[in-house]
Specification:
Length: 373
């Protein structure tokens, strides 16, 4: 359900500013020119929050607030008062009646959004029905680090992807960047001076526009105290230097909710190919498993009845991968799907060392595998 905001102000300019401020959020704006209209509109739409001007004709903000708080149906609606500089004392007096906050006119749009986001849960427009991005879609990653070499290293590390890596050196630059362009993910160096990383974390989390952006801390593995402070502040993911880019890519993909199935699954010419990467650690195996059922169903629905498990690029066979392949082959048999395995010399030799895989037959190429089924 969309958030409902009621703005009660005799100034058309202020009402326009309010509408403009929340244009990028999933909410609807209702307007009233005075307290009488405001009460009527509040009763009609039952808003989630009211932005109430103090000085208005017909019925001012103080009288409307008093009547609002005496109405059993409306008294629970949070109110933020709008006042001129000279009216601050008046606001403090009526705070006892029940206001959540106040804003001094003139105000900036980001201040209004920030104040409202502290009271109600603002979400970006369209977030209720998001279109899931794929792993090969462009995303924007903001790196906050005062060492240019680290920023360049991350740019180079993701050079094989369509991801855009933006680098800034300070908290102020990061805030400015986020106001102009909302990143999909932010990586913050925990070694920034004067606990700037934690300060930036709190600023980002307290802002309605950025509060849901995934945040990663970046730290040397041995900086245990630095990492502990960051985790205590709220960082849920810490990336260690030197950076394992394969691991970081996987973590960003999960945090941003990217559909990573394209890394492993390919359909065409009557076949589905499951391409296993060089490092098939537990995290990768788990990721492949996550997509396996849905992609197999997709293949069957598309009329595909042949599957190739391609392990030619795998560096080493392990029990996690063996279990994945055993489960996959059983699924194929249960669905009457034909399948074949491909592997390199290392994988073929290592498979003979495990009881579960010693009898597996491998093809040496995709072409051979296709011909075999």
């Amino acid at each position: 359900m969309r958030l409902k905001i009621l703005t009660v102000d005799d100034s058309k300019t202020v009402r326009i500013i309010v509408k403009k401020s929340f244009k990028g959020f999933d909410c609807e704006i209702h307007e009233a020119q005075n307290g009488v209209e405001g009460l009527a509109m509040a009763a009609k739409v039952n808003p989630d929050i009211i932005l109430l001007d103090i000085t208005m004709p017909v019925m001012d903000g103080v009288e409307m607030l008093t009547k609002l708080k005496s109405d059993p149906q409306l008294k629970g609606i949070p109110v933020i008062m709008l006042t001129a500089e000279a009216g601050r004392e008046n606001v403090m007096k009526i705070a006892k009646i029940g206001v959540r906050d106040y804003i001094v006119k003139p105000f900036k749009e980001d201040v209004l959004v920030d104040k409202v986001s502290r009271v109600v849960d603002l979400r970006p427009a369209g977030e209720a029905e998001p279109v899931q991005k794929k792993i090969d879609d462009p995303i924007d990653i903001l790196v906050v680090d005062d060492k240019p070499a680290i920023i360049q290293q991350i740019k180079d590390g993701f050079g094989h992807t369509p991801w855009n890596v933006h680098g800034v050196a300070s908290t102020g630059e990061a805030i400015d960047f986020c106001q102009k362009k909302l990143p999909d993910c932010i990586i913050i160096s925990l070694s920034l001076s004067e606990d700037a990383a934690i300060t930036l974390f709190r600023i980002i989390r307290s802002n309605a526009k950025t509060k849901y952006v995934p945040l990663f801390g970046l730290s040397v593995k041995t900086a245990v105290e630095e990492q502990a402070r960051a985790q205590q502040a709220g960082f849920s993911t810490i990336i260690h230097k030197p950076i394992d880019f394969e691991d970081l890519e996987t973590k960003i993909g999960k945090a941003v909710n990217l559909d990573a199935s394209g890394k492993y699954f390919d359909m065409g010419e009557g076949f589905m190919t499951v391409k296993l990467p060089k490092s098939c650690n537990a995290a990768v195996v788990n990721e492949v498993s996550t997509y396996l059922k849905s992609k197999t169903s997709e293949a069957v629905n598309a009329g595909i009845s042949k599957i190739i498990f391609d392990a030619q690029g795998v560096a080493s066979l392990n029990m996690d991968l063996i279990k994945l392949l055993l489960h996959s082959m059983k699924t194929c048999r249960d669905l009457s799907l034909k399948y074949a395995l491909t592997g390199n010399d290392v994988v073929i030799e290592e498979s003979k060392k495990f009881e579960e895989s010693k009898d597996w037959k491998f093809c040496d190429s995709l072409e051979t595998a296709k011909a075999s089924i």
